[in-house]
UniProtKB/TrEMBL annotation:
PANTHER family: P53 APOPTOSIS EFFECTOR RELATED TO PMP-22, P53-INDUCED PROTEIN RELATED. It is a multi-pass membrane protein. Gene3D superfamilies: 1.20.140.150. This is p53 apoptosis effector related to PMP-22. The gene is Perp_0.
Length: 196
């Protein structure tokens, strides 16, 4: 029976795949207009990482203002964006690292360290945004932080998980490279009574 866990050489592409998933969720968070939305009808408030939009109850057109006019808006966008760029670099490094036959485990651990930096930048951006938004932008009606903001947190959680695995992967170096011989356990018929 062959067991293919995380420490299996055939399954080495799981971690880069998870990083790719984190990148996709990060793109959705960066481009999505659902960081903050009205909780129920009438939908009069909507915000992204870049701008905040409001409209009157009977109005169909949104009136938007850029969050880049605020220092905290630039800080939230910059920290999340820097984290995202480093995440893309980590993805490229992971693909390169796992493509090489002789895997450099110190290199893999370095990717894990960079992923912790990514998580720190993204968490800073994801905390600055709601705290300062609710303090400085006048809100209309009942609002909630919505799906695009959730994708930002989901990307961060995946990055943190991958960071731990990248840092711990060198501990399983022999298993990953297939340097461990299988151990076979059997008992002879004479010894069977003693095993009970």
């Amino acid at each position: 029976m062959v067991v293919c866990g995380l420490a299996c050489w055939r399954c080495r592409w799981l971690l880069p795949l998870l990083l790719g998933l984190a990148i996709i969720m990060g793109i959705i968070a960066l481009a999505g207009r659902g960081w903050l939305e009205s909780e129920s009808e009438p939908y009069v408030q909507q915000a992204s990482l870049w701008e905040s939009c409001t409209r009157g109850e009977g109005d169909l057109n949104w009136s938007c203002e850029s969050l880049m006019d605020y220092g905290w808006g630039r800080a939230a966008a910059a920290t999340y964006l820097v984290g995202f760029v480093i995440l893309v670099i980590c993805f490229a490094l992971a693909v390169i690292a796992f493509s090489i036959e002789i895997l450099r485990f110190n290199f893999v651990r370095g990717i894990g360290g960079l992923l912790f930096v990514v998580a720190a930048f993204q968490i800073i951006g994801l905390v600055i945004y709601p705290v300062k938004f609710t303090e400085e932008i006048p809100l209309t009606g009942d609002n909630m932080f919505s799906w695009a903001y959730g994708f930002g947190w989901a990307s961060t959680v995946v990055v943190i998980g991958c960071a731990f695995f990248f840092c711990c992967l060198p501990n399983w170096e022999d298993e990953v490279l297939g340097n461990i011989k299988p151990t076979y356990y059997y008992s002879s018929p004479e010894r069977a009574p003693y095993l009970n």
